[in-house]
Amino acid sequence: MINTYNYLVSSDYYKPQVKYNSHKKNELKSIYKDIMAISKDSPLYMFKLTPDNQSFALSIKNYAGDITSSLEQFSGDDSVFSKTILASSNERCVQVYGDADSDFDPLEISVDSLAISQRNKGKALYTTSSILSSGNYKFRIDIEGNSYDFQYKVGERTDNHTIQNGLADFINKANIGINATVGYADNSSRSFLVLTASNSGTYEEDGVSFHIYDDSTVNGRGLVDYFGLEQIDTYPSNSKFSINGTNYNVAGNKVELFNGATLEFTAPTSEPVTIFPSSDASYVLDAVRDLAGEYNSFIDFVDNSKITGNGPAKVTSFLKSAIKALGSELESCGISLNDKGQIKIDESLLKQSVHDGSLKEVFTSENGLTYQLRSRTELIGLNPMEYINKTIVTYPNVSRPGIANPYLTSVYSGMLFNQYC
Predict the structure, then answer these.
(1) Which ranges in the chain are annotated with CATH 2.60.40?
(2) How much of the chain exceeds pLDDT 90, in percent?
(3) Is residue 85 within 8 Å of residue 222, measured between CB atoms?
(4) Model-level pTM?
(5) DSSP-based three-state secondary structure for 328
């Protein structure tokens, strides 16, 4: 006899039990009644229990159980659809981060303009030349109510490019809220310094974010004046937006809502964007991927099985009919079948269907995907012997009440324990 039981619990197949694998007493009673009903209406068969037939029957029952277990994630009070977050009707313009309160009312957001950071662009000077004298140069930067003094030493015959790189590194290491970089012009023959405020919006009364000026010079020249660091290329501005018709003017592009959630503006809007409670797409996506993985593994196993007869084709046809029954609805949610009959997922469509509620509808409606798949996998699990070759011995006498025939289930359970008895 083939070591069927050991096959099932081998490291290649074994999966730890999860909460959905357990059954309540009333569920076990229901399973028992279903088995009795099947056996009353079924003919009496003889089976050729070859090693391949045994492994196939045992395996499809377990694959069906895995799918049934995955489907439990989509139903009940603790389903993946019950985790509620805030979502945006237009994530290209307005993004939102945070959970939704049970009493959260949708918001309408209009963004007129984004907050912009101040950018100073210096003079483009020839990289290999310089007329600066050697010595210690001092300059000051005022930013967001704070003043910072800098002192930079220029050596003999140090060229412009070297000084610019040194100043950029010097300012960046100070970590005062300004990012300094070196830009190039004229095929890199000339270079210039760019100073950009880390924060957007205006903070000073004169409408700028920072000031930079020479504090001392050497032979009448200062670093700020020489390199043109005080020249503003882009003036800062605040974001201008409205929430439910109330206008706001804020220095940044992130706004914290009353419930602790955060709005982030990434582009002006042409029409109002709605912020609304929605199922958490990340939880739902993981659950759908898990279900697709179990389903595809089942199809792959059946397609590659070595048993004779129409059992494998019957299994795959039975499973595929669940997807095909909801073809157009599932496809609009990003779920379809490929040429091999396996589930493929369009994650962008799937995410959108989570936000607009259509995926929840197609999974949890009375005849939705959860019902369609579960009804099939439970039947496969109840009677996996239906899908292997067998010979009919007698038909049931339909003129009399059916009599339960334990032979069907005893054959299956016997395959698990025959080598231990």
Answers:
(1) 119-234
(2) 60
(3) no
(4) 0.60
(5) helix
